[in-house]
Q: What sequence folds into this?
């Protein structure tokens, strides 16, 4: 399984990087919308919907409307970011709530597990801010440097991948203290610390090599730490929904990795949180 995961990751990583940097903006938006829609399709397994196709109507209409209102010129999008901060705030608030639900699982289950509407709404809160945060980061300083926003998106990907890798190996070697055993028995506090340390190092190195400005080194560390924590909790939240639904993987589209949600679960939390911190708070 580890070998299969590595092979798939080695194929996916160059494709992701090429898509972020080389796709024309309009095609980039379409590709991102397609990934988000696949994520919604996999999320419908958590909803107990009578028809998964009917459950896709609202997400499809929401993303379809987004494709209509998003300017084809990324420079024009960069002037709209102020009006879209509410989406990032919505995502940030959702992840505070979702993290609380995951940490307090299973006692929190009774608050939402019997409501298909709540679980459906949770999917929207997870994937719509994810979609918009990538677009908002991609548009940063585009007029001055067309690749600046692409480097920001890639930096978050590097941060999450480093956190996952560091947590896996440090957890294997030093893991003793379970972080949320009822949700994910293999995750440990030691793994979290190891993942955070590697992610901070990779974020600092990546920002330096790609010439990504931060207001200060301390702010870079703060953003990295908070984003790492968000990414880990994002993984836990999806694990919680899968556990309640009796599902091992959200899909089988990616050999060794499961579904799209299994691959982007950490990013769905990390990207809105990073975007909110980088674009506004810090």
A:
């Amino acid at each position: 399984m580890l070998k299969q995961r590595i092979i798939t990751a080695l194929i996916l990583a160059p494709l992701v990087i090429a898509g972020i940097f080389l796709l024309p903006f309009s095609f980039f938006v379409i590709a991102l919308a397609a990934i988000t829609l696949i994520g919604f399709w996999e999320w419908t397994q958590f909803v107990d919907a009578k028809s998964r196709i009917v459950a896709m109507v609202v997400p499809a209409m929401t993303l379809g409307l987004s494709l209509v209102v998003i300017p084809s010129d990324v420079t024009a999008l960069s002037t709209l970011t102020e009006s879209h901060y509410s989406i990032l705030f919505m995502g940030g608030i959702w992840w505070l709530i979702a993290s609380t639900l995951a940490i307090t699982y299973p006692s929190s289950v009774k608050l939402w597990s019997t409501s298909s509407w709540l679980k459906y709404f949770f999917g929207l809160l997870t994937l719509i801010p994810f979609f918009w945060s990538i677009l908002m980061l991609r548009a940063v300083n585009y007029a001055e440097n067309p690749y600046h926003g692409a480097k920001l998106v890639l930096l978050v990907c590097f941060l999450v991948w480093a956190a996952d890798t560091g947590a896996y190996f440090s957890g294997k070697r030093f893991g003793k203290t379970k972080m949320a055993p009822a949700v994910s028995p293999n995750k440990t506090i030691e793994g979290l610390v190891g993942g955070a340390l590697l992610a901070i190092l990779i974020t600092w190195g990546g920002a330096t090599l790609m010439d990504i400005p931060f207001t200060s080194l301390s702010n870079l560390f703060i953003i990295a730490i908070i984003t790492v924590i968000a990414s880990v909790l994002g993984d836990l939240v999806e694990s919680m929904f899968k556990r309640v639904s009796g599902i091992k993987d959200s899909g089988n589209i990616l050999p060794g990795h499961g579904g799209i949600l299994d691959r982007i679960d950490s990013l769905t939390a990390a990207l809105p949180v990073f975007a909110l911190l980088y674009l506004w708070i810090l």
